[in-house]
Amino acid sequence: MTQRHPLVAFVCATTAASAVLAQSAAVVVSHDDPNGVLAPGESVRVTVRRIIPSGLYLHHIEGDLRTTPNAGTISGFSSNYVPAFNPWTVQPGTISGGAITGFAVDFYTHPLFVGGTLPGQWGTVNYELFSFDWTAPQVGAPTAFDFNWLAAPAYPEITVYELLSIPPIALPTTYTGTSILVVPSPGPAALIGGVLAMAARRSRRHG
Q1: Which pLDDT band, with edges at 50, 70 and 90, does 42 fall under?
Q2: What is 3-57 written as a DSSP string?
Q3: Would residue 187 count as lying in a domain?
Q4: Is the pLDDT of residue 121 over 50?
Q5: CATH number of the domain residue 157 falls in
Q6: 140 near 183, Cβ under 8 Å?
Q7: Mean pLDDT, residues 107-131
Q8: Which of 60, 80, 94, 175 has the fewest CB atoms in 10 Å of its CB?
Q9: Does any domain span residue 157?
Q10: How far is residue 160's CA from residue 123's CA, in Å, rounded to a whole number?
Q11: Helix (H) or strand (E) holding 196
């Protein structure tokens, strides 16, 4: 059996790592409301996705989904990473107002050491981390709510596995958020005023 010289192996691994570092990853937060405008009590589905280059495999991602200002109600949390399954562990995070803090996924072994078909959660280019329903709170004036991913200080970038390099590699990572405008519903006084104004206009037209 032909053995690879250690120097050749080192050069190949270094070249592979350099090629990976020339690529980038992303975390994208989006919602499904077509206009991005809600009234208090209305809900929207918020989704957080991670994007990695083809041919790479997720190692670790960790952070918070922050809502600013932190208000509203979260329900219907869903993630294909929950529950954990060999070869990954997961922290589903904690709901805190309109935010989810401490979400983390860790693939604790290299793809070369796992037999069979690799799960989609591992190497799919564009994959959903989690999603939830966010219900808009009461506001006194039109208020923009921003939803952004805040990476954990220990993992400011997504780390990945490359098949030719055993140690995980940190990829330059961009973070894209989204926003929702919550517009207050008209109160009873405003509704009564609107009805009276319409009646007055009709009286002027028919008088």
Answers
A1: very high
A2: ---HHHHHHHHHHHHHHHHTS-EEEEEEE--SSSEE-TT-EEEEEEEEE--TTEE
A3: yes
A4: yes
A5: 2.60.40.680
A6: no
A7: 88
A8: 94
A9: yes
A10: 9
A11: helix 188-206
For 42, the domain range is 6-206
Q: What are the two backbone dihedrals, phi and then psi, of residue 8, each rounded to the nearest 5 degrees?
A: -65, -45
Both tokens of 36, joined, read 């991005």
Q: For 168-196, what is each residue's pLDDT tens digit?
A: 999 999 999 999 999 998 754 344 444 33
Both tokens assigned to 18: 């350099």
Strand order in the sheet with 43-51: 73-78, 126-135, 43-51, 25-31, 173-176
DSSP assignment string, 140-160:
SS-EEEEEEEEE-TT-SS-EE
Exposed (0-12), middle (13-18) or buried (19+): which is 144, by Cβ within 10 Å? exposed
When pLDDT is averaged across residues 99-111 and rounded to a whole number, the result is 94
How many domains, in total, are found in the chain?
1
Cα–Cα distance, 155 to 104 (Å, whole number): 10
pTM reported for the whole predicted model:
0.80
Residue pair 54/198 in contact (Cβ under 8 Å)? The answer is no
Within-domain flag for 139: yes
**H or E segment at 106?**
strand 99-107
| pLDDT score of 13 | 41
